[in-house]
Amino acid sequence: MAAKNGSTTIEKEQIFGMAEQEMEYRVDLFNRLTKICFDKCIDKRYKESELNMGENSCIDRCVSKYWQVTNLIGQLLGSNRPPM
Amino acid sequence: MAASDGEPQAATKEAEKPKIEPLRLPTPEEIRGQDIWNNCAVRSVVSGIMGGGLGLFMGLFLGALDNPLMQEEMTAKQQFIYTAKQMGRRSFSSAKTFAVMGLIFSAAECVVEKARAKHDTTNTVVAGCVTGGAISAKGGPKAACAGCAGFAAFSVLIEKFLDRHD
Known about the structure:
The complex is a heterodimer of chains A (84) and B (166).
Chain A: H1 2-41, H2 53-79
Helix pairs in contact in A: 1-2
Chain B: H1 2-16, H2 28-38, H3 40-66, H4 76-116, H5 121-135, H6 141-165
Helix pairs in contact in B: 3-4, 4-5, 5-6
């Protein structure tokens, strides 16, 4: 009984550690995505405070492409464990 | 003594600094509103209506200034009615022209800007060319080219004027 309790505590800690790592990864992904798409799409001279249509569609495309690239690279890294 | 006096002063200065406001992300209603406004069809229809309103007023104004008919046969009242009818006809045709102009210009600019994903003067130039060409298309290809160039230049001037004004 005591051994079982010990292993579940270790498991819980492991799961918590993984969740924390995943959270950090997500936050990092969000920050990078925002920075890259902002630098790419939005003019440095701010003429107005609202996003105009060109910037809106640029951001849509930027986020979509970034997400696809992330997924693709994640798949490639995940499938081929030994380095090519 | 000097060190202990310095610290409370620094603390009060920190408290006097303005509070940083929390980040305010847009609500779903705001996003939906922006999406509706970014739709090309909605934008062009609204621009067409605004162009129609503008054309109405301009037509009324110009129609009133147009012909001071001094026909001796009609009485003052008949002259008034005739002028009023003239104004109405003129303003209606002018409203139609302006509405079509506004619709085509806004639709072209919206489509071009969405395709290019950039906010530039090139969008205005292309949209102006399309509008001018469409309006003067009846006169043949040469008239269409002239209309295109003229209206494009006019749109760029208006855009620069509006930007500087803001």
